[in-house]
Design a protein that fits this description.
Elements (H helix, E strand, L loop, with lengths): L11 H16 L12 E6 L5 H12 L3 E6 L11 H8 L6 E4 L3 H10 L4 E3 L7 H15 L6 E5 L4 H13 L2 E5 L8 H13 L4 E4 L10 E4 L11 H8 L6 H7 L3 E4 L11 H4 L6 H21 L1
Parallel strand pairs: 1-2, 1-3, 3-4, 5-6, 5-8, 6-7, 8-9
Helix pairs in contact: 1-5, 1-11, 2-11, 3-4, 5-6, 5-11, 6-7
Bound molecules: phosphoric acid mono(formamide)ester (CP).
The site of phosphoric acid mono(formamide)ester has 9 residues, from α2.
Length: 302
C-alpha cells in the first residue's frame, strides 16, 4: 500500500507515470470511466477549498467510484473521537482517505492507524498533488521538465515546499525568492536538495529580487497562508518587491506565469499579468482534476 503524504514517496519514474496517466485521462477520459468502479474514498477537509474539493469529488465520479465529502470545518479531526478511531472506522467502508488538514501529523496519524492509502490534499507543510498538477502544466506548455528553471516568488510555504520536492524529483531547477526569514521549511529544503543533486538539478533560496533573470517559469502564491488572519495590507510593504507585475515578469524572462489560486489580485500578482497572455493559472486549476484521477487510480489499485 502506498500513501501520498509528502511527495517524497515516489521516484522520478513514478512521478512521470502519474503525469503521463493524467495526460492520457485528460485526452481520453472515457477510457478510464470504470477504473474505480465500486471503489470509494472519504474526502476530509478541515480548511476551505474550491479547486481541491471539487476536483477530488469529480475525480472519483469520473473513474466510476464515489467520494464521500466529510465537512470538518466546524470540528477539527481528533476532537469528537481520536484520529486513530476515526481512521479505523472509515477504513471499514472506504478504499482511500483524502485529507486537507491543519497539521501534517494528522495525516501521518491517519496513515498509521488506517489500512488504506492516505492522500495529502494540503497540510501546513506540503501540497503534493498541487505540485504534480503544476509540473504537468509546465510540461504541457514548455514540452519538457528536465533542466527547466522555475522561480517561485513571495512567501515560502507548503506550496513552495512541494514545488521543491516534486521539482527535485523531476529534474527541475527551482529557486525561491522571498523576504529574509520567509523561506520554505529548512528540513524539507535540505532533504529535497539531496534529491535534486541525485537528479542533476539545483534548488536555491534567494532574497534579492534583482537576481530574478533567465527563468522559464515564474510562480507565486498568497503572501498570507490559509488559517493566518494577518491582513494582506499589513505585509504588503515586505512582499511588494516580489509581486509579479509586468516589470518583474519581463525581467524574469519567463515564458509562463503560474499561481496555484486563490489569487489576491494586485497583491502577489497584478490583474494585467494574471489575465495576460503568459498566464496559465486556469490550466493549472484544470489539471488538478486530471492529476487527482491519476493519483487515485495509482494508489487505490496498488
Ligand atoms: N490551490 C488550491 O489548493 O485551491 P483550493 O484551496 O481552492 O483547494
Amino acid at each position: 500500500m502506498r500513501h501520498l503524504l509528502t511527495g517524497f514517496e515516489f521516484n522520478q519514474d513514478e512521478y512521470l507515470d502519474i503525469l503521463d496517466t493524467a495526460a492520457a485521462m485528460k485526452r481520453e477520459p472515457e477510457k478510464f470511466a470504470e477504473v474505480l468502479k465500486g471503489r470509494s474514498g472519504a474526502i476530509m477537509f478541515e480548511k476551505p477549498s474550491l479547486r481541491t474539493r471539487t476536483t477530488f469529488e469529480l475525480a472519483f465520479y469520473r473513474l466510476g467510484g464515489h467520494g464521500v465529502y466529510l465537512d470538518l470545518q466546524n470540528g477539527e479531526l481528533g476532537k469528537r473521537e481520536t484520529i486513530g478511531d476515526y481512521a479505523r472506522n472509515l477504513c471499514r467502508w472506504v478504499d482511500c482517505l483524502v485529507g486537507r488538514v491543519f497539521a501534517q501529523k494528522t495525516l501521518e496519524e491517519l496513515a498509521c492507524y488506517g489500512s488504506v492509502p492516505v492522500i495529502n490534499a494540503l497540510s501546513d507543510l506540503y501540497h503534493p498533488a498541487q505540485a504534480m498538477a503544476d509540473y504537468m502544466t509546465v510540461r504541457e506548455h514548455l514540452g519538457r521538465l528536465k533542466g527547466v528553471k522555475l522561480a517561485y516568488v513571495g512567501d515560502g510555504n507548503n506550496v513552495t515546499n512541494s514545488l521543491f520536492v516534486a521539482g527535485a524529483t523531476l529534474g527541475v531547477n527551482v529557486t525561491c525568492f522571498c523576504p529574509l526569514g520567509c523561506g520554505p521549511d529548512v528540513q524539507v529544503f535540505t532533504k529535497a536538495s539531496e534529491l535534486a543533486r541525485k537528479n542533476g538539478c539545483t534548488l536555491a533560496v534567494e532574497n534579492d529580487p534583482a537576481l530574478l533573470k533567465d527563468f522559464d517559469v515564474i510562480y507565486t502564491d498568497t503572501w498570507v497562508s490559509m488559517g493566518d488572519n494577518t491582513p494582506l495590507e499589513a505585509v504588503k510593504k515586505k512582499y511588494m518587491p516580489y509581486q509579479i507585475n509586468q516589470e518583474l515578469l519581463q525581467r524574469s524572462g519567463a515564458q509562463i506565469v503560474m499561481h496555484c489560486l486563490p489569487a489576491h489580485r494586485n497583491y502577489e500578482i497584478t490583474d494585467e499579468v494574471m489575465d495576460g497572455p503568459k498566464s496559465v493559472v486556469f490550466d493549472e486549476a484544470e489539471n488538478r482534476l486530471h492529476i487527482h484521477m491519476s493519483v487515485l487510480s495509482k494508489l487505490i489499485k496498488a
